[in-house]
Amino acid sequence: MVALPAFATTYMVTVAGLGGEPDYETRFSMLATDTDKILHTGAAADRVVETLKGPAATKANVTAALSRVAAQAKPQDAFVLMMIGHGTFDGEVYKFNLPGPDISAPELAALLNRISATRQLVVDMTSASGGATDALKRANRTIITATRSGAERNATVFARFWVEALRDPVADTDKNGQVTALEAFHYAQTKTQEFYTEQKHLMTEHAQLDDQQRAATFTLVRYGSNAAENSDPGKRELVTKKEQIENQIDALKYQKDLMNPDDYRKQLTQLLVELAKTQAAIDK
Hints:
This protein has two domains: 10-227, Rossmann fold (3-Layer(aba) Sandwich), CATH 3.40.50.1460; 232-284. It is globular. It contains ten helices and eleven strands. The strands form three sheets. It has a six-stranded mixed beta sheet with strand order 2-1-3-7-8-10, with helices on both faces. The protein has a three-stranded antiparallel beta sheet with strand order 4-5-6. A two-stranded antiparallel ribbon has the order 9-11. The chain is α/β, with parallel strands linked by helices. Helices cover 44% and strands 17% of the residues. The protein has helices at residues 22-40, 59-72, 105-112, 133-136, 158-165, 181-199, 212-215, 228-231, 233-253, 261-283, and strands spanning 10-16, 47-52, 78-84, 87-89, 94-96, 103-104, 119-124, 141-145, 178-180, 208-209, 219-222.
């Protein structure tokens, strides 16, 4: 495995955009908050983390965040962009849905191309994210998408399993105390497949990774205090409860068309409240 130079800095930007409906936006924002917490836990001086969510996740703010990275990053540095939310694809152009104007894949590519860091990773976990791949492709840029094409338009579950991979020591398959992009991808991909099998639903998302070799050398997190909630029995019980609630939320969306709208909203709201309470207990 190729190690990063000791002097390299990794810039990490996470953006949680719109969810198609307010309750999903709340959930996407929670995933972004969770990611930010994980990345800041035990964060070293060689990591710069910025997270945009909710009303702050505008096109202007995304542009500003990526421009800051472009102004600071050096060729020996690394850069990670993680996108959570809802995406659309009209057959030609992919767009990441944000409060106010959306941002298109070509616009994102233009911003990323200004970043001189030669090691770049884009993890697009939105619906229709596969439609962004061609526009974002570039040498030394690894691209992970939750879907294999822009035609897979349903909300994805890959995002929550990707975030789970950042905290779960099980994702560290070679047991070296850190998780690479390849390990996180395989973890989230497997968990996604298991979810659809357990729920007896046809898979509506097929995650893609364009370069396994580069992904295997891209370290995302190093375990330490990040793993505490998985080793402590009380925390582990709460984490398991959280995963069960998230499964219920994702399963509920498949029943939406068969339910009374008020009943659907009521059940979803109750689950989201319970999810928030469980996360708060984990964070204590």
